[in-house]
Every structure is written in C-alpha cells, then in structure tokens.
Design a protein that fits this description.
Layout (H helix, E strand, L loop, with lengths): L1 H15 L11 H15 L2 H19 L2 H9 L4 H29 L5 H21 L22 H24 L4 H18 L6 E2 L4 E7 L4 H4 L5 H13 L6 E3 L9 H17 L4 E10 L4 E9 L4 E4 L13 H4 L23 E3 L2 E7 L6 H4 L8 E6 L9 H16 L3 E5 L5 E3 L5 E4 L6 E7 L2 E2 L3 H5 L2 H23 L8
Parallel strand pairs: 2-3, 3-4, 8-9, 9-10
Antiparallel strand pairs: 1-14, 2-13, 4-5, 5-6, 7-8, 10-11, 11-12
Helix pairs in contact: 1-2, 1-3, 2-7, 3-5, 4-5, 5-6, 6-7, 6-16, 7-8, 7-14
Length: about 500
Amino acid sequence: MDRFGGLLMFFAGAAAVTAFAPFGYYPVIIGSLLLLFKQWSRDTPRQSLRHGFLFGLGFFGTGITWVFNSIHVFGHVPVAGALAVTLGLVVVLSLYPALLGYCLGRFCRAPSWPVLVSAFPAGWVFAEWLRSWLFTGFPWLNIANSQIDSPLAGYIPVLGVYGTGWLLALLPALLLAIVKNQRRLPSVALLVMVPLTGYLLDRVQWTTPRGEAIQVSLVQGNISQDDKWAPENLLNTFSRYTDLTFTSQVSDLTIWPETAIPAFHDQVNDGFIAYLETELAKTGASLLTGIPVLDRQRWEYYNAVITLGGEQAFYYKQHLVPYGEYLPMRWLIGHALDALAVPNADFSSGTDTQPLLQAAGYPVATTICYEVVFGEQIIKALPEAAMLVNVSNDAWFGDSLAPHQHLEMARMRAKETGRPMLRATNTGISAIIDHDGRIVQQSPQFEIAVVTGPVIPMQGATPYVRMGNVPIVVLSVVCLLLCGFACRKRVSDLPGERGA
C-alpha cells in the first residue's frame, strides 16, 4: 500500500507542473497539494519524509528538465556531467518537501483543525522561502507563480509571492479538513472567502500613472547560441540590431536583450557605441542593451546593461547563476569543476547599491535574466522606479518549459510592484507586460521580432513593496512554533503518554 502511495505522490508532484506556464491549469496545484497533505496527515515521520521526497522528485524532476538542456546542449557539457548536475539539483530541491514532511510528521502528529489549516500552509511557504536564499537561492516553481491568472491574483500586490502561496496552500488544507469532517462550516466559509476576497482585491489599483504613455520597442535578434559569440558574426549581429531599431520610426525607449552586444564595452565604445549615440541623438530616444564589461585594472568582468541616448550608465548583474556565471566555493574546490567546461563561470557580481538607470526620462529597475525571479531584489528599487526592465538570453533554455515559466515570473514581478515590465530576450519570449501583470504584446519564439507598444510609467507603492516578505515569513515561523507546541502538549496529555 505504501508503495502505491509513493507512486501517487510522485505523479501528484509531476502533475502540479501543469499549473504553471505554458499550461496554466492553475487549479491542479490545489489537487496535488491535497493529495500530499492527506498523505502526510496519516504518515509516520519517516513515511512523511519519503513521500515528501517523492513528491519533490516528480515536481522538480518534471518542472526543471530544462536544466539538462541548458548544460548539455548549449553549455557543451558531456551527457554524464550534465545529467549528474541536473539530478543533483532535483535531489537537493526535493529535500525541501521531504524535510518539511518529516517535521510535520514529527512535531504535528494527528493534526487538529487549527494545526492543519495553519502549520501545513505555513510550513510549505517557509520551505519555499528557505529555498529562495539558501545556497544563493532557487525560487523556481514557487506555487504562487501559477496563480497569476487565477482569482488569487488580487493578493499578489498585497502579500507577494509567498503570502499568496500561503493562501494557495491553505485551500487544500481546508479541503482536507472537510474530507476529514473537521469543522466543515468554517472550512467551507474560508474556502469561499479566500478566492472571493482575492477577486475583489484585484479590482484595487495600488499605483497611479506617473506621466503620459511612452512608445517602447523590444528588439528580439534571434541569434543562435552557437553563433552569438563567434567573432566572424559580430558585424552581422550589429547590423541586425541596428536595422531592426533604426529603419523605422524610433521609439522613445528601445531595449535589446542580455549581451545583445557580444563584445566588451571598451572594445566597441569608440566605434559601435559612438554610432548608436549619434543615431539616438537625432530623435532624443533612449536605448538599453545588454553588454559585457571588463575592468582591465582589476581584471573582473560583469554581465551588464548600459543606457544610451543620454548620460551613459551601467547596471551590473547582482544575482549570478551558480555554475553558469560563477563557481561557488572556488577557493575550496579549485579547478576541480573545470572539467565540466562551464562557460562564463567567473563573472563578478555588482553591488546592491547601484543607482537606477535613467531611460526616456524615467528611472527604471533593471534585472538581467535569472534576477527577475527574486521579488525581494526588485522592490529595493521602489517606489523610485517607474518601470521594470528585464533583459535575458533564453536561448540557453531551448524549446523547453523554461522560457514560459520565466515569463510567468516576470509577470509576477509586475503584479507585485504595480509597474509595467519590459522584457527583451534574444530568442523569445519578449513581452510588454502592464502594471497588472497582463501581457499586452509578446513575440513568438525563435523568430526575429520587434515588439512595439505604448507603456505608461507608474508611481506609488503596493503593500508588498512597503512590507516585503518579512511579515509572511514571521507569521509562518510563529504558526509553526505554536502548532508544534500545541501538538506536543496534546500528545503529552494523552493517557498513554502521561508518566511515560
């Protein structure tokens, strides 16, 4: 019986991935968590550990299969090495629900109604929050990301990704309480109130326009990863981007993707950059583009964005991708991982005190690729920033789930902050996202494209921008401690436990 329970947990985890983009079957996550919570509610601690781990294997093993694609196909790492890294990552991520299950089984045995509807959601969200910062963090597949188009979306600018995830995890806990015949009336009432309140909150406008709409163009060069860094293709790359930008009416703000200029800034500053400045000066337009920067004095290089068409300024990427842009603990492991041939493994990180870039007369909060998944990083630039900009090179992901999941998280950041998100990628999906997290326009994948449209800069602050993640993390910890204490006291008060 336990064997079949394990298989059920694995497939429940795998099914949960369909709640996220590109599928968007957002109710599925509730069913998957209901099965997991039901299993945990009757498990021993050891069984909870096993079932949580199997759920994680199904969830992450299905949801982040693109990691192998990125490492092997585009990173040119041998199959064995890429498979080892991918499986290792899936196993590590699966430990979070596994350890959560063990702790719930150990400290919250035979949960009563208050414990069930507080400890289970609090534990899940606290585990997600830990996953977002331990070992530099990997908040991919946070469950609230799947709710950007659901009735719970109204909570996103109020509570952020973790608060919304708390309420989402509450729903299967309430359903389980109904199934277990525990306080059915309050459970049904809450089950109705949570999505209804979210629906009503979604009608509230937390931010207001800061000025008139500006015209924005996102240029998608669609240059393959194999050709991108080849020196013989450099001039063709320059021609493609300039033709797409200057052959028609120039927008107020044009954005090129991550490392759209595949050469160090000092190598092209007197030539190509100077040409761009001249062309932009004719119309007074602004251009943001990804470009690598090499500090030849310290011999450090950065994944950067430069703003042109005014005073030049740089944003240096802060949150680097481990084993993609740098090697963690290089001092300890030396060159042992060089055999994996990981490209770009020695970027330096920018500071978290960088001033905001100015573009088209407005301050913008800039992120590069992976950084857009970290909401707490973006809100540091608010409420000063009027727009969010994310440049990325999703060619690393190929034709996988990742570009769709990445776009979904960019939509979450727009919804959390009440700011439009302008997302320019090399191979798609490039998109103009409004301040409510809705896609206004987007490009097809793997095609040369220019996404153009009006964007309204915004001002003000959502409740999430003001409070951040601290309240929900503190609430989760308090709930877990109180529930653990209550369960321990209840067990010790049982006749068979007294005097043991």
